[in-house]
User: Fold this.
Amino acid sequence: MSLFFVLLLLLSLFSFTIEAQQQTYLLHYCPNTTIFSPNSTYKTNLDRLLISLTSNATAGSFFHNTTTGKHNSDIVYGLFLCRGDVSTKGCQDCVSTATKDVIQRCPVEKTAVIWYDNCLIHYSNQSIFSTPAMVPKFYLINTANVSNQERFNQILATTMNDGAALALNDTLPLKKFATSEANVSRFQTLYSLLQCTPDLTTSDCNTCLRGAIADLPNCCDGKQGGRVLTPSCSIRYELYPFYNQTAVSVSAPPPPLTPPPAITPGKSKNTLPIIIAIIAPIAVSVLLLFLCCCLLKRRARKKYKAVEEENAKDDISAIETLQYDFSTIEVATNNFSYSNKLGEGGFGEVYKGTLPSGQEIAVKRLSRSSGQGIEEFKNEAVLVAKLQHRNLVRLLGFCLEREEKILIYEFVPNRSLDCFLFDPEKQAQLDWSTRYKIIVGVARGMLYLHEDSRLKIIHRDLKVSNILLDSDMNPKISDFGMARIFGVDQTQGTTKRVVGTYGYMSPEYAMHGQFSVKSDVFSLGVLVLEIVNGKRNSNFYRTDAADDLISYAWKQWKNGTPLELLDTVLKDNYSRNEVIRCIQIGLLCVQEDPAERPTMATIAMMLNSYSVTLPVPNEPAFFRNSRTEGKMPNVGLESDQSTSRSTPWSINEVSITELDPR
Ligand SMILES: *[C@@H]1O[C@H](CO)[C@@H](O)[C@H](O)[C@H]1NC(C)=O
Ligand SMILES: *[C@@H]1O[C@H](CO)[C@@H](O)[C@H](O)[C@H]1NC(C)=O
Ligand SMILES: *[C@@H]1O[C@H](CO)[C@@H](O)[C@H](O)[C@H]1NC(C)=O
Ligand SMILES: *[C@@H]1O[C@H](CO)[C@@H](O)[C@H](O)[C@H]1NC(C)=O
Ligand SMILES: *[C@@H]1O[C@H](CO)[C@@H](O)[C@H](O)[C@H]1NC(C)=O
Ligand SMILES: *[C@@H]1O[C@H](CO)[C@@H](O)[C@H](O)[C@H]1NC(C)=O
Ligand SMILES: *[C@@H]1O[C@H](CO)[C@@H](O)[C@H](O)[C@H]1NC(C)=O
Ligand SMILES: *[C@@H]1O[C@H](CO)[C@@H](O)[C@H](O)[C@H]1NC(C)=O
Ligand SMILES: *[C@@H]1O[C@H](CO)[C@@H](O)[C@H](O)[C@H]1NC(C)=O
Assistant:
């Protein structure tokens, strides 16, 4: 038994020691479209080039570019780059290993790139210096999942952007290398590393790094680690330190000038058995601990999965990947055929489409002139496409062609909440637990828009028909970011163009055009009351005096009979506690004074925890149909009602009411 352990220890120590000396190969790329013959001058020049690179690495450089050959047809351009934190010795070992390895893996190819953990070799028969090469692009992912993905993505984006700024700053002369760290939680730290080949200009390096960062959501979403590798730059992040923190904390280390003493390859190998021989008998228990650490450490470094990027045909900036051809959209929607039409809102018609890949999409063909230039439209669409949350309908891309502006969304199968909530036949499908799940999901999605995403987005048109339901009845908020895409956004302030829906607009917004996160909170309050009650606020008729849902809810609350508000189809199958909390939250949200309304963060907390005591709501802002029109002196009501009436969507589907103060 103990013999077995010692054996295991020896084996493990042996392999660990070997691993520490070994250079980790990652990937190589050498298309066989351009090849040389084994006897050619090119081959001779390539061999000379690789020798020159190795000797320069031995001399202490971390980057070197050189050419060999005289005649145009057989010149070889080549470079090596070591990771910024790697020691001279590490760099030398890596380049030496990689130059030998690359000619094994790419025996006849003129152009090759090989990535090792610590270095990169790149050569070609064309000049590759000072030229950003973002193709081919490879992703490597650490398959372990992160736990709090939204928060993690946010921290990752910030950390990467900080790192890019550092790498571009020339505090490390000629290095174009940076690492950046951030605390994810009390126990977890995020480590990131970014590097360009130093022959690039700052602006090319920036382009390359931004392109790589923009790819992280595609390659590595929800993963604990990931890398994007291109010949010109690479980025990586992990939840463990994968670079030498001591080496990077030394700011602007001067490049070593004297070559390190030559180390004979045999020497280090010879020491290995001696070390084992001395240590193993003495400190078995210490080694056991060491072994455990090694194994744990290895387990943490989950297997890497190489994913070649499917579309490496040109440099993949975010805009290009998000832009769709008009012809593709035409085919996908069967020429915008009526049978594909899903509905119509204030921004235009919505069609269902199917991409050639089989992916179903929803296509929103914008009808209004947006006052937004092409470039701004693109930029905003790219920003909005980056907002990803399970309670938001994902923007997949856009199309700009022939005066058309089109937004392409993921297709959400179950249509919108109002199709269930206000349909006498289907409303029974929404039992209380489903309704509660929808309320919680909408609050989470809104919290992300308000506080957790990279941009602060005020929705401005939150309502039942903008809540789509997936096949599991999970809610997804749609139409967010429209104000941005339409160029009418200010994060807070007063707007001349009021975009919103009658019945959901807070009084300060409808009357004075003042919007803030608190106007969205108001809309959420209306939405919550509608979900509890099963009737529209704007279409609410009762025989008694109260003439809208908010007034009715307030009246019942004051009477101490809040459950009167509950949809009668729910009968006895509900949680009394949850229903009353929802009504109370709804009433808190529709209070007249925006400052008294809770924030989305507070709402999400109130919904998550029953132990939070809710404040007592004040009298809501009454917003009676009959009076408001008369009470808005400077507001002309231009709405889509007349056009919407002719569509299959009912009058109450009106998705936009635009009010232009004169
Ligand atoms: C290039 O590689 C592909 C795939 O490995 C192979 O099918 C093809 O025959 C190769 N072409 C040449 C010229 O070697
Ligand atoms: C390479 O060149 C040598 C002499 O120049 C010749 O004998 C040999 O056949 C050549 N080999 C090939 C593969 O062309
Ligand atoms: C580095 O490479 C250059 C060619 O680019 C060569 O002239 C020089 O001798 C090399 N330096 C060393 C120390 O090998
Ligand atoms: C290395 O790259 C720089 C920048 O592109 C270039 O000016 C220089 O000539 C290159 N060196 C060699 C030896 O080709
Ligand atoms: C590189 O090699 C390919 C194929 O041998 C050739 O078509 C191309 O023109 C070469 N490029 C240069 C710059 O010589
Ligand atoms: C990560 O999550 C995905 C689904 O979200 C799952 O398929 C995969 O097995 C998980 N991976 C690990 C290592 O837990
Ligand atoms: C770049 O470095 C300078 C001096 O070290 C510093 O003042 C500046 O803030 C840095 N810029 C960025 C974007 O990090
Ligand atoms: C992370 O937290 C530790 C203490 O918990 C602190 O010392 C360190 O500075 C933090 N690091 C960053 C990057 O904020
Ligand atoms: C990390 O870097 C420091 C300073 O460059 C060096 O002394 C140390 O040996 C390095 N550690 C490892 C594990 O390479």
Remarks:
- Confidence is low (pLDDT under 50) at residues 1-20, 251-316, 541-546, 623-662.
- The chain is about 40% helix and 20% strand.
- The first strand starts at residue 25 and ends at 29.
- The longest helix spans residues 432-452.
